[in-house]
Amino acid sequence: MQSVAKEFNVSDTAFLSPAISAAGTNGQDESNSTPRFNVRWFTPGAEVPLCGHATLATAHFLFSSDLAKHDTIEFVSKSGLLVARKIIRPTLKDETFTVELDFPVDPVVEFDASEVPSIPLTLNGVPIVNVMKTTACGDLIVELPSGKDVAKLQPNFEEIKECSGRGIIVTGPAPDGCGFDFYTRFFCPKVGINEDPVCGSIHCALVPYWSEKLKKKRLTSFMASQRSGILHLELDEKSQRVRISGEAVTVMVGTILV
């Protein structure tokens, strides 16, 4: 799987297989109509415990191909049981859908100053508002004064490699009137991804972080990479879950020979 992910050379590659249910069937327990699959994620350089956009793409493929004849799918992963739901959205032209993922909250904790070496080339003189750390992968969250600062950032990947944890999440409040709550970019050259174009899993930490700052439970994030992406987010404080929804498009279907 690692070799295949390296060959694809995209941010994350998801690998899917039917889960053996309690009833002994693949992907389907007769006592529970919800299909269940095993999922693992690999970057070009390493296996990761959680990936949002690859899971969304996997669910989109299952829903679109009718391999899952239900509106809910369960994924068994290294981060526990994850749920994807098909949300129907009628349009003027046809019936489209979004995928909603249900992920666990990734608590944000204080960091040790020694974990963040000086990164003057990356920040280009922009002041830092706050620095925290995620629990799951030890990613550093660096908050800048504005989303515009996030979008203009010119990262120095050699500097970022010297930081502890998997990578650096750079985020800031969105400009007034743009329709978003915050901007984000994610750099993780240590695992073969200089910049992840759209990353869902980091929002398991960013949603509670920005929810507390903005006093909102429903948020919209803009990933300000060159490709960019929009994530619709909701925090469920009681269950400590984050719901992430977005759209996907199937662009290729093929066969891999290994």
TrEMBL record:
<protein>
    <submittedName>
        <fullName>Uncharacterized protein</fullName>
    </submittedName>
</protein>
<dbReference type="InterPro" id="IPR003719">
    <property type="entry name" value="Phenazine_PhzF-like"/>
</dbReference>
<dbReference type="GO" id="GO:0005737">
    <property type="term" value="C:cytoplasm"/>
</dbReference>
<keyword id="KW-0413">Isomerase</keyword>
<dbReference type="Pfam" id="PF02567">
    <property type="entry name" value="PhzC-PhzF"/>
</dbReference>
<dbReference type="GO" id="GO:0016853">
    <property type="term" value="F:isomerase activity"/>
</dbReference>
<comment type="similarity">
    <text>Belongs to the PhzF family.</text>
</comment>
